[in-house]
């Protein structure tokens, strides 16, 4: 029999799950594009660009994510509130909402961590493949987009799966800045029903299921990419 508190708070938990999935999706997409740019900057022959990207990844990976979230939410949030022009603009409803700060913090984090992963993948692509692309008349940009980057991403699929799972777990930090994600919804249930452990166990089970789903999707993508890898 389904516990009464699950039935009573099902809609709240469902909205929390939706929020968690949206944060995961937005941070994954924008974080990935940022990571590609960071990876390209890290291997750039321009020393200034390479040094700046190294500084960004070092600072981001060298500080706890929770501290970064607090800096963005309490630091930037308080700063924006001091400007009447910003408070009166159409951006204010977004700038005062913790949701967008957690998304921004996660995008920044993904850009740094996955950027280093992609950099390693780009450097692991055999030089002979790039020489072959050049022999076929491809420009360096075409070779990067058509050969080097796709090849690196196929090699990195297992690692990217792990990074995505880590990102999923990091979304739980949204509850620390009053965002009602899945864990935030569970905390509301705990406070209102005095059920201390049961909501947490339910949420833990949901995270485990989502982890299995993510791993299955990446495993499927890896299997689909295997014939391409063998023929390369």
TrEMBL record:
Which Gene Ontology molecular-function terms are recorded? transmembrane transporter activity
Identify the residues that the record assigns to the ABC transmembrane type-1 domain, covering every copy.
17-218
Q: Where are the transmembrane segments?
A: 20-44, 65-86, 98-118, 155-180, 200-221
* Domain of life per record: Bacteria
Q: Main location per UniProt?
A: membrane
What are the alphabetically sorted keywords of the record?
Amino-acid transport, Cell membrane, Membrane, Transmembrane, Transmembrane helix, Transport
Q: Which GO terms describe its cellular component?
A: ATP-binding cassette (ABC) transporter complex
Transmembrane helix as UniProt keyword: yes
| Cellular localization per UniProt | Cell inner membrane; Cell membrane
Which Gene Ontology terms describe the biological processes this protein takes part in? amino acid transport
Membrane topology category = Multi-pass membrane protein
Q: Which family does it belong to?
A: Belongs to the binding-protein-dependent transport system permease family. HisMQ subfamily.
| NCBIfam families (alphabetical) | HEQRo_perm_3TM
- Protein name from the UniProt record: ABC transporter permease subunit
């Amino acid at each position: 029999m389904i516990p009464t508190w699950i039935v009573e708070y099902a809609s709240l938990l469902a909205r929390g799950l939706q929020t968690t999935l949206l944060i995961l999706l937005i941070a994954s997409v924008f974080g990935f594009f940022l990571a590609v740019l960071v990876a390209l900057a890290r291997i750039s022959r321009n020393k200034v660009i390479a040094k700046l990207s190294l500084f960004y990844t070092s600072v981001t990976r060298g500080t706890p994510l929770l501290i970064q979230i607090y800096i963005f939410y309490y630091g930037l949030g308080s700063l924006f509130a001091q400007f009447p022009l910003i408070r009166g603009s159409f951006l204010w409803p977004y700038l005062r909402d913790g949701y967008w700060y957690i998304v921004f913090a996660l995008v920044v984090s993904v850009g740094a961590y996955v950027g280093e992963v992609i950099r390693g993948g780009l450097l692991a692509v055999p030089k002979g493949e790039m020489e072959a692309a050049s022999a076929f008349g491809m420009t360096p940009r075409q070779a990067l987009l058509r050969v080097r980057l796709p090849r690196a991403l196929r090699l990195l699929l297992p690692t990217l799966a792990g990074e995505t799972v880590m990102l999923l777990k990091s979304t739980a930090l949204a509850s620390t800045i009053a965002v009602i994600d899945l864990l935030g919804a569970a905390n509301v249930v705990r406070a209102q029903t005095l059920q201390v452990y049961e909501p947490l166990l339910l949420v833990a089970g949901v995270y485990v299921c989502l982890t299995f789903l993510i791993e299955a999707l990446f495993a499927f993508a890896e299997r689909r990419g295997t014939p391409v890898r063998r023929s390369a």
